[in-house]
Structures are given as structure tokens and as C-alpha cells.
Amino acid sequence: MILRVIGKLLIPFILLFALYVQLHGDYGPGGGFQAGAIIAAAMVLYAMIYGLSTARRVFPDWLVESMIAGGVLLYLAVGLAGLYVGGNFLDYFVLDADPVTGQHRGIFWIELGVAITVCGVLLKIFYLFTQRGQDQ
Amino acid sequence: MMVAVVALTRTRNLFAVVVLFGLYSFLTATVMVALDAVDVAMTEAAVGAGISTVLLLGALHLCNSEEEKPAHKPWLPLLVTIGTGLVLVYGTWDLPPFSDPEAPIHTHVAPRYLEQGPRETGVPNVVTAVLASYRGFDTLGETMVVFTAGIGVIALLRRRRYVRRGKQ
User: Fold this and answer.
1) Nearest CA in chain A to B139
2) Chain A: closest CA distance from residue B15 (Å)
3) ipTM of the shown complex
4) pLDDT tens-digit profile of B61-114?
5) Does A105 touch chain B (CB under 8 A)?
6) B38: Cβ contacts below 8 Å, ≥ 6 apart
7) Is the minimum CB–CB distance between A46 and chain B shorter than 8 Å?
């Protein structure tokens, strides 16, 4: 009971902190990898308190699996977008008329891609490990 | 940290080992903060102390929580470890002293990143600018590594279920 209440209080703030780390990575410490790990940690905490099946309803397997590939594809898409607009692969200067805005835009999307992949992989590993214990 | 490492090697209770690993990760994170590498410290705290502890506990749930007595005497591994350590220490003699501004690593591309980075990319955090922009290709490779690791774990852990389903 205590765990559930504290978990309910804590998890939104962990997720909020992850978003802060993700979106504020340009200005303070942090970035996609850290944010993805923190989101995965919040989900692991959620799964430990409310049970694995509840967590799997929030983040179903198909979603986690497509996140693993989706993040990498998003990253690649940003690189190819640079090619498409007429620059080099992973060239952000061409993504906007103003090079600095283009840099911001490129960094935002690739950090998002990194976060999605990291979060997906960590969650998938966690699911696989815990589910193995339940099968036996 | 030394205490944690010595305790790690001495104890046979794997649960205590997992907890000590978490402790060690947090101590490493504080060392990273002391070295002004907050980004690395954050990763260490989240992944090293948080998630890998949970994963190790999950693995512990599947197996015995007491470590078996080792089958071999530790002399050969000890010799190899000490030998490698001595070679590494020998290697550090040629390195420039810690925080030497004239060291090659500080005179090659780093000044350009530090001087031009914020102006070119408009990103005040140089770590992010280097990681995501100047070294974007490396970071793509890193993401690929994470992706491949995830796929590998899925391939390894999933296989059993299919085999069992095939038998039924």
C-alpha cells in the first residue's frame, strides 16, 4: 500500500525529469541516452510495484519492439533528410533556412531517436528477464 | 570504493554482490561528478545503479543465490591480471600529466569545438553539440550498437520459448 502510494507520487516526477533531461539537453547536462534510461527506470519501478502485466498493458510488447527499431530509423531519417534537402548525410545546417535553427532541429530529432531506442532496448531486456522467471 | 571492491570479491552471497555493485556504481557516479562529467554520471546512476541492478536481481531470481566454491586455484588469473595491470601502468608513463593544457588531446580539435561550437550550433552545452552534431555519425553508430545489443538479447532469450512450443 505504502509502495503504491509513493510510486504513484514518484513516477510522474521521474517521467517529468526524463523529459527535462531530454529537452534541456542543449542547455544543461543530459540528452537522449540519459532520458531513455530514466524513462525505462520509471517503467521498471512501475512494473515492480504494480506487477509486470500492468506494465505490459501500458507499454505493450509490440510497442517496445517497434521502439527499438523506430529510434534508429528516426536517427537515420534525420540523416537522410539532410541528404534530401541538399546537404551531406547528418548535415543539420541545411534543415532550416537559419543554420543555427537547423542545428537545433537536427539535434532534437536525433536525441529523440536515441532516447526511443535506449528506452525500448532496456525495457525489452527487463521484460524478457522477468517473464522468464514467471514461465518456469 | 576500495572497500566495496574488496567486499565484492570476498562475499559468496550473490544478493549482497548485486547490492554492492549498485553501491559501486553510485560511487563511480560521484567520481564522474567530481570530474565535471555530469552527463556520464547521470548515465552511470540510471543504468549502472538502477536498471542493471534490477536486471541482476531478475537473473538472481532464476538461479541459486549462493556462489559455488571456485573449482580452480586463482593463481593463473591473478598472474594475468597483475601482468596486464603492470603493462597498463607502464603505458601511463608516456601520457601527458593530468590536466596538462599542452596535451595533444587539448590542442587538436577540442579548441575549435569550444570556440566555434556555441556559435555554429547555437547549443550552449558543448557535450551535446559534439555528441549530436560534430560527431553525429559516431552517435548513430552508438545507437546502432544499442539496437544490435537489444536484438541479440531478444534472439538469445526468446529462442527457448519457441523450442518449448514446438515440443508441445
Assistant:
1) A114
2) 17
3) 0.79
4) 877 777 777 677 778 888 999 999 999 999 888 887 777 777 777 777 777 777
5) no
6) A29, B32
7) no
